[in-house]
Amino acid sequence: MTQPTTQSGSGLVPTVGQTVGPFFHDALPWPGDRHLVAPGDAGAVRLAGRVLDGEGAPVPDALVELWQAGADGRPATAPGSLRRDGHTFTGFGRCATDEEGWWSFTTLPPVTPRGGAVAYVSLAVFARGLLDRLLTRAYLPGTPVDGTSGDGVLDGVAADRRATLVMAADDPGYRFDVRLQGEGETVFLCWPRDPRAGGR
Amino acid sequence: MTGTSPACSQAQIDDEIASLALDSTAGEDRDPAGLRGATRLDYAPYRSTVLRHPTKALHPADPEGLEMWSPVFSHRDVAAVESDLTIHPQGEPIGERIRVTGRVLDGDGRPVRGQLVEVWQANAGGRYIHQRDQHPAPLDPHFTGMGRCLTDEAGHYSFTTIKPGPYPWRNHLNAWRPAHIHFSLFGTEFVQRIVTQMYFPGDPLLPLDPIYQGIADRGDRDRLVASYAHDLSEPEFLMGYRWDIVLTGAHRTPAEET
Fold it and tell me: Which InterPro entries does the UniProt entry name for this protein (chain A) (predicted)?
């Protein structure tokens, strides 16, 4: 029953996702989870926003993960996210939303990943009532949304939805709201070789 | 609760589940809505999904960019003792001691090495230590129900724990979750990130559970159920369960430099 099953053509059948549920708070967060750099560090920025449902109400039991390139544009390869040493940038953070749906990271300013055209970070979103995780991107404020950014993902999104992927400037950093449903619904992404892209 | 009376019965939920099930007479090859292979996000029998599922299709991205890499973890992040949920300085937890082990593989069958696996679960009485869990079952002072480990060179993970109990929730009247362990996993690419739940074989609550039944395909559902593995059981000590996890297909080759 649990042995991996072969799918015709392209390897094994992936295990499917299930909701993170309401009871993850004692297990998934850790001290310092949201501080990729120490608050107050020179050059640190805040990257924050809310998770909102289809009626615009805050989602107080969501979890947001941040995955970000290092200052040199390369993917971070240093371990230590769970036991931060205060000096090493691991590129990864995690933040549970509060009662008003807010999440917030202290991090380096987003840069253009090596080989890319514009600066962005990657976000994963989990919540009670959300049966599988969602992935999205948050691009720097001012990234063109007229289809000329040079970023294949952003330019490929329908014109009237591109702005959902762009952060707003919000000193000392950026704001990015995740709208799970409804007006201004955030664009969520999938990649090839993933049945979430539409059956198998 | 949205859209339906809070007093909605299990029978009503059963009817909704049946009405949304893939047509079993359509044959294995037919899946016009593309429901196989993933968990449905829009699945009203699980009431909390109603306002929390995207209504637009996921946007297909090319296999390039930051998501083709993943956070890296090591024994700096995770201590070996974190994989044994039965260790507590004041005493032993109550319940059926079990070991859950298996492999984390990518879509090509390659082991996922040195990656973080996180678990959390209710105690033997079906109670989480979480402050929002109001189920009137006892907390176990010797059990927190959370663990972590890193996969080994062959992709193996292993946790020693207590078999969790089923517990009530408020999705509908007399709603009970089947016993399960929450798993959080990383691959070599951020696109492989997954949080899921492992279930136990023979649980009579599985057909009634709108979270489990949110998975359209029977084979996909079956693959979330561990196998009892007598070869993993230890005499006079614990019972063994085996559960392998397959992440979605990778896009980079293992040798590709960052």
Answer: Intradiol_dOase_C, Intradiol_dOase_core, Intradiol_RC_Dioxygenase, Protocat_dOase_a
Among the ranges given (B4-13, B80-89, B121-130), the one the predictor scored with the smallest mean pLDDT: B4-13
Give the C-alpha separation, B196 to B226, whole Å: 13
Q: CA of A22: which chain B residue's CA is closest?
A: B132
Whose tokens are 């992404």? That residue is: A189
**Which residues of B are known catalytic residues?**
128, 167, 177, 180, 182
Taking one residue from A and the other from B, the number of pairs with CB-CB distance under 8 angstroms is 290
- Say if domain A24-179 classifies as CATH 2.60.130.10: yes
Q: Which amino acid is at A88?
A: T
Say if residues B86 and B230 touch (Cβ distance below 8 Å): no
pLDDT at A146: 98
Judge: A15–B224 Cβ closer than 8 Å, yes or no: yes
Q: Do B51 and A127 touch (CB under 8 A)?
A: no
For A180-199, what is each residue's pLDDT tens digit?
999 999 999 999 999 998 75
ipTM for the predicted complex: 0.96
